[in-house]
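User: Predict the structure for this protein chain, please.
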Amino acid sequence: MPKIIDYSILFQSAFGAQKTNPIGSFQLSALNSRSVQQQLKAAGIDTNSKQYKTVIKNMMSAAKGNGAMYTNPQAIKNLMKNYDEDGDYIDPVTGLAGLLVTEENNASRKRIISIPESSREEMFELTKREFIQENGVANGDTTRRSDVYTNLYRKMQKNDRLAAGYTMEQYERAYSRALYAAVKKADPNWKIGNPIPKNALDGITRESVEASLVQSGNEFISADSERDAAVNGAVYGKTVSQIENAFAEQLKNAPQIIRKEEMSVEVNGNIRAEKMARLEKQLKEGSFVTQKEKLDMKI
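Assistant: Here is the predicted structure, written as structure tokens:
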């Protein structure tokens, strides 16, 4: 999630700008001087706090170490409100810390951990309901999936929130794959966007989907699909998985962590059809589809 922070006051003396200081402002180079420290203390700023240290670190980074830049106590206090007592950024949408992805934690967050059953049930019910409502179309304009992630984050400890979001994403994808597979099994000629055959999803429950999952590294895979492909030489189960994963990538959906923007697909029907046609071609060239099992990629 990008952080939008106004550091404009730091640059008031740059590029020939007026050299006089606004009331209460000081140069960063004077930050540790006695007079400035007294000024900060008088403003109620705890210079030993992690919030303060994080803000100053970010300011120095934004100013590229240029001590000639200016700031003032009120600007520092305003920025400190964006961080908790540990100096961790507070997401403005959820009011929670521990949801900011950085270069340092991006890799480590991709791990599967235990998350509440209630959250998994909430995600399954929503995924199934929206799948039926939209006839299998992944509609980023109407989905309420971000609400499910937010509810999950509120149940988790701060240091586990990123991993919890990643784990939920793995379950969500598994639920989607199972729904696609069930409808295709009921009607091999079913097309995405067409009405879902009656009773096609009656036997699909969260428990049944999760029972078929096995963990492979930091991902879940369906043991049933892999077994069917190995025993019968079929490509169907694997193809469904490929379609769902590739389509998710096409959408650039990012509920792994809550961001300011919801998942959105700001492309018209023609562009979507063109993109999915290219995807279908790639899948076919990758031997994921036989001539007798042509995929309908209509979105």
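The first helix runs from residue 34 to 42.
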